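Students often ask why we bother predicting the structure of a whole assembly rather than each chain alone. The short answer is interfaces. A chain on its own may look different once its partners are present, and contacts between molecules only exist in the joint model. In this exercise we take two input lines together and write out one structure for the complete complex. Read the inputs first and try to guess which parts will touch.
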Amino acid sequence: MYGQQQRAYTYKDRPGSLRGDGYGGGGKSRYNPITNPATALAVQSHNYEPDESEVWRAYVAQVHFSNRGQWWTTGKKRALKRWILTFAVGVVQAVVATSCNFASRSMTSRKYDYIYELLNPSFVESSTAFWNFCLIQVLLCAVASMFVYIEPVSGGSGIPEIKCYLNGIDLPRVVRIKTLICKVIGVTFSVSGGLPVGKEGPMVHSGAVVAAALSQGKTTCWGVDTSFSKFSDFRNDREKRDFVACGAAAGVASAFGAPIGGVLFSLEEGASYWSTKLTWRAFFCAMTTILTIQAITNIDTWWGQTEVGRLFSFGEFNSISGGASNYSIWELPIFGLIGCLGGLIGAVFNAANEHLTIWRMKRVNHSKIRRVIEVIVISLGVSVVSFATPLIWGRCTELPQDMQDWSNQEKNLVESLVPFQCEPGKEYNEVASLIFTEADTAIKQLFHFREGGGEDNSTFSSGALFLFFVPYIMMSSVVYGIAVPSGLFVPSLLAGAAFGRLCGHLLHKLDHTSGTFADSGTYALMGAAAVLGGMARMTISLTVILLEATGDMQYTLPLMIVLMSARFTGNVFNEGLYDIHIHLKHIPFMEPEVPPVAERNEIVAGQVMSAEVKCLRPVERAGVVYDLLRSCQHGTFPIVDTASGGTLYGTASRDMLCTLLQRRAFGNPDVLDDYDNSDTLGTRRLSPLVQWDTIERAYPRYPNIDDIDIGEADRNCWLDLRPYANTAPYTINETASIQRTYRLFRTLGLRFLCVVNHNNQVVGIITRKDLLPESLTESLLRGRNAHVMEDDIHDLS
Amino acid sequence: MYGQQQRAYTYKDRPGSLRGDGYGGGGKSRYNPITNPATALAVQSHNYEPDESEVWRAYVAQVHFSNRGQWWTTGKKRALKRWILTFAVGVVQAVVATSCNFASRSMTSRKYDYIYELLNPSFVESSTAFWNFCLIQVLLCAVASMFVYIEPVSGGSGIPEIKCYLNGIDLPRVVRIKTLICKVIGVTFSVSGGLPVGKEGPMVHSGAVVAAALSQGKTTCWGVDTSFSKFSDFRNDREKRDFVACGAAAGVASAFGAPIGGVLFSLEEGASYWSTKLTWRAFFCAMTTILTIQAITNIDTWWGQTEVGRLFSFGEFNSISGGASNYSIWELPIFGLIGCLGGLIGAVFNAANEHLTIWRMKRVNHSKIRRVIEVIVISLGVSVVSFATPLIWGRCTELPQDMQDWSNQEKNLVESLVPFQCEPGKEYNEVASLIFTEADTAIKQLFHFREGGGEDNSTFSSGALFLFFVPYIMMSSVVYGIAVPSGLFVPSLLAGAAFGRLCGHLLHKLDHTSGTFADSGTYALMGAAAVLGGMARMTISLTVILLEATGDMQYTLPLMIVLMSARFTGNVFNEGLYDIHIHLKHIPFMEPEVPPVAERNEIVAGQVMSAEVKCLRPVERAGVVYDLLRSCQHGTFPIVDTASGGTLYGTASRDMLCTLLQRRAFGNPDVLDDYDNSDTLGTRRLSPLVQWDTIERAYPRYPNIDDIDIGEADRNCWLDLRPYANTAPYTINETASIQRTYRLFRTLGLRFLCVVNHNNQVVGIITRKDLLPESLTESLLRGRNAHVMEDDIHDLS
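Now the answer. The structure tokens for the assembled complex follow.
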């Protein structure tokens, strides 16, 4: 009685499929993540909406029913918990960031203090210092790489991973506590190890993990169950994503002291949803972080009026004289030009790093040991270069003397100039002052030192800037991608600041009457923005972050001009570095805009969909469901009415089906003969009911089909899928344009989209992978042969 | 032969409609904008997506075909034009804003100069000044109200109108050139007329109109065709909305010198789309505006280093000493308290204005003459109060003497203190100094004067602040809504600054050791933010606008705290003022979030839809179409296959149908007998074809059905709608939850949504009006009796 329907119903079975072959094509394997190497990574999309099934509706109705007449409803309780958790995220992230900052600062300063003691003007004795220096740096980097050895996901900056997460891609292990620990401790060591890396990217990642961990409450770390919270109301993809967005905002806020920039970063990356409520939460979270950091850093003054607490700052920009700007309006085109140059530098940087990364993926990354060895080798190289460049420069400059009218900030910066084989307290080595300090001190030096002092009347001469800039940016490009946690913002800013100050010097040399051009510090700021913008190509959020870090609104217009021109110039050559890395990893990242290939050509949904759909019937034999789940990795299965030729009844998710099989929610095999039309089934339930919250409780680790086994006797039992079917899935007509399809899919953050014809019969399914530019191009090449479009052209034109 | 199908097919005709009565109900009139007073305003939604019909696809294919192999494609040309136009919008808006600012400033200063000449310490002679003062002010206000008489839409702030426009509502005449002219000239007079109004809201409106006018190229103003541009590539709702968003950003940028705040304002209001490309364009547009304003204001210094060009500014906040903040961290809770108080003040302000507006709508607004008289009466009242309060204060304070270490800004502010019956050059009247100056000077005085000078050791004593604050905020509440163009930002900021400074004074009195609390200027800034936030309840964009106007990043955290607490406190009592006015006008404004009534109850799409759908058949008699169009005002008609019980074939827009009737695109009546099943029609075209661009050329003034007349002979002709049908309309299943429906509708900015059942049969249609909270509540009350849900509960629980 069940022989002929022993396998799942597919689109091909449907009689009289309307122009099914014109679109879609037959045996495409794109939907199968196993056979296609591009999707070999077990990447799943997030599911932001609950399946609207009968059991879900019953659950919602029950919740509403239990709240009837109450003031303190479940919804309000949840809202309060959500705000409390958001507050907690802000506080914890502030503590994490402050600790990481304190640790790396003290390690760095101890390292340099030790080296300075060993350094002597005589060359022979310096060699001891050199060897010690190399040894310390290599050791620290090796420790950093050990953490990446333990948890590979914690390598790199983390910003691509968070971008992907907010884009709706469930990369494995990205927001685990283990990753957080490895990342934060690792980046402390890699920064202390003297590599040209920053800790800003990792801080953003850290904020995201803190948020995910706190909101989910229950998590396992190295096998230990760290259930520290009963707040498990938020265990679904949507809530988790919202928390991660808040956490990322807190991360940016802690890294740059830029709360608004942080909120914008989250919103820009998670562009598929712009919710006012979420904006406020992210705002609140970032605010809490800043507040906590201020409270921690100012605890010694009893929270009085002290420096605005920031872990990273550009220092204070002072106007030349009250009310006037530091630049002339006619200098804005020059800033634009610097932006273009920065865009070029960024493009070269990205291209070099892309080639290196491809080489690394082939030769290094397949072995964990090789990655550690690479770190050690590169760290040694960086140490040698760092020590060699000041020696090559080999000139001592007198410290500035006439400092009566200098500000405190400038006096502090003078103190941090490094003698390096010069007479301490009287002279300094220009190149060493940039290398042998922390990166943010070096940036402040480039931004704020006024002219006066060394050769050609400035603290840093053009030669020194050049000698620092070229090796530093080359090292940065080499280092990004090795197996240590490493951010890219600070190296870009530092290299850019040197470049910008160099530009300023050259302009000043052209100009014999002084005072025509803005001072070199302003040019250094523009250069920093240009190189960072040319590398990252980030949009409005980066402008706001830089503005907040600068803390002076007069730079709004120049920064906007620089970042825009850097972005446009860079985009002529290649993508932003984060996007390059996302694409190299073959992650199905959906850009906010429809890909140009779709804009330039007429493609319809029916052409890009996967026609190889595996369907289920409303009531199905358990054996058929089991075999289907084992035979493919699809995340969602349409439920169709076979009698009417595959009319869409609803959809069933893999997780739900696995849960049903695991819980053995089968009905008696004899209750029903095989059937043709689901209308004949009536409203009788054919199998025991599993409640919606029972299914959802397993989130995010639903049962795996490989762990489930059903006996031969059970195979014949009926599984009644009707109460669990998502009866209102998003659908799109097969004639819809790709623009409309893309917008629907991307804007609502969907996981799948059923493609139907005019009779609501399922003709295909569209997932994230079908809408990537490569898939669209492929569809287009096939579509060129389709006759429908050309017919239209002849007919109508 | 066509007797039995002489009227349009409706849902009721369908045989065997599945649970049609359970949902939706019968003769609802909500969908009809005529019978329901709430929608009596002829409000249409924008249509952001082209109807994807065969003719549209053919048009797109033709464009692609003609671009084949070319480098300089139509798309690139359009993109270039778009950027050029965006640039032009920025420049023009800057010129408009600068002119308006210059005109109102010079008019105001001439007025005060004239009055000061007449003013004398003797009371008798002052009466001449008083009468002159009243006369001038009333005259200026009367002129302002004349412009609103000419164009009623130009009254008020314009921000609610722009919010509605970006929300997707096509309010008539909002973005016309006539409105722009009336608004800009009108606001110049109303500000000069001494009313407590600002010109910032109108500037935002102005930017939007400039953008709409420039992008549309062709427009009529007072009957004169002002076709000044051939750039008419952007004549559709989507492009126009994008330009308006850019223009609004430019408007905010010009009003507050806040380019980033402007971009955020546009994005927050037009929240249904967050497009990276549009962000960049808005960014560019705002940047251009700022650049042009800087260029214009600095032209006298040959664009050298001068003051950062801003039309409105909070002045320069100087830190007490380098690096330290102007406030202590433990003062942040006090700021939060001020925020709460500001929220309360805002709530009272809004409630008072709401009641006044309702009264006005009943008693004044129905007659244009009454509105002008109201303006004259209120203006007289404001003049009397303005003149009386300084007289009541009647005390002369000595000018501060010890000004060696004061900054230029403070010295300038001292010069702008008003003697008003005191000895000029030696004394000033504290209250008059706040009233008899321009609002932004008064704001700067409140923000920047240090303690020292008058009674209780400050420039403005507590009594004077109180005497200014109470009448001023009451007048503001009365004035908003009268028939003059009037913004609300500046009055709120000024009143709030007085309130905040007052709070500061009171705190300083509590504190005997000086220096514990921040100076009164900081408190004034917090008060300004609190009252503005309590009134407008705007979100993140307001924070950024205030931050950019303040120009000092150390205030980020306090401002965030103040604005958040003001918003939360205010929201306990009522909505923001702009939302109140939108709702009083019964505009179907869709909030970004699902209304709470839907969150709290289980409603499905089938319950909220309008079941009274007027449908057409794929091929229809011209007479039937004509009668249908005349009988109702619906904007969209589903096209259904009657044979299969109403299967959705596509949709047809009213505009398209009118164009077809006007162009008489009919086929021979004898070519076809009446038919039952559209499949039998084959692919033969039954009427002549009208190309897509022919239909679209009429945008935005499509033919009206009342202007079309078809003869008796034509009534019988066939109209083949198949090539024009939007075959891929957005649909939703009747069982979808209201959350899902709302999100789909709001996020994609739809105009309508077809509700279908499992067989793709049209059971209803959802438009904007069906998703408003009131409609949802109504549906819910009906839905309580529906048995389906309760069945589910009993069955499953």
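Check your guess against this: The CA atoms of residues 109 and 230 of chain B lie 42 Å apart.
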